[in-house]
Amino acid sequence: MITLVTKGIKVTVQTSFEGTFFKNYKMHYAFGYTITIENQTKEPVQLISRHWDVLDSLKEMESIDGEGVIGKKPVIQPGRSHTYSSGTLLASPIGAMKGFYEMVNLSTTETFEAEVPTFKFAAPFALN
């Protein structure tokens, strides 16, 4: 588990290896991650978008941008948190992701970025 706090938003990430499978005649490695976003400020915030940099050890880094997370734009009240799970497919058994959430303070309408720490993926059989 890895944690980072930015501007009062605590982001904690837990990863898991979900298995391997063939797709389009190529081996793929499936990884899951669960992220908890905790609002440690005194103001309500809303997550409005996300940015990911995905590193696959066999490919160039890929950047992904999108609205919300898993189809939601959660409002997180002070002292509360939002947890969700998602996943990614890699061409190799080793990789990583990092990024940020674009947040808006609902009291002031100020937008800011809450960083997501770099989290690593490694299939158990890939490490000595």
UniProtKB/TrEMBL annotation:
Q: Which InterPro entries match?
A: ApaG_domain, ApaG_sf
Residues making up the signal peptide according to the UniProt record:
none
**Chain ranges of the ApaG domain:** 3-128
* Superkingdom classification of source: Bacteria
The Gene Ontology biological process terms listed for this entry are: error-free translesion synthesis
Task: Give the protein name, as stated in the record.
Answer: Co2+/Mg2+ efflux protein ApaG
